[in-house]
Specification:
elongated, 67 residues, mainly alpha
């Protein structure tokens, strides 16, 4: 139990950044109609299933249409 308490100062900001990135990615997916690859449903699934930083980063690298 004390090991978890020692890690909290590191974990709390990491989780906050992860949730912020996930929220921004989902907002972007839901407010845009065109994607470089795939569809809205595909990118929502990739983002939610790959919720650790990988899903949102994949979307911004591979799916986001340049405006």
């Amino acid at each position: 139990m004390s090991e978890i308490r020692e890690l909290l100062p590191f974990l709390i900001p990491l989780v906050a950044i992860q949730m912020g990135l996930l929220g921004y990615t989902l907002y972007h997916i839901l407010t845009h109609n065109t994607y470089k690859r795939g569809s809205r449903g595909l990118w929502i699934a990739v983002t939610v299933i790959g919720m650790e930083f990988i899903g949102p980063i994949l979307y911004f690298l591979l799916g986001k249409e340049e405006s």
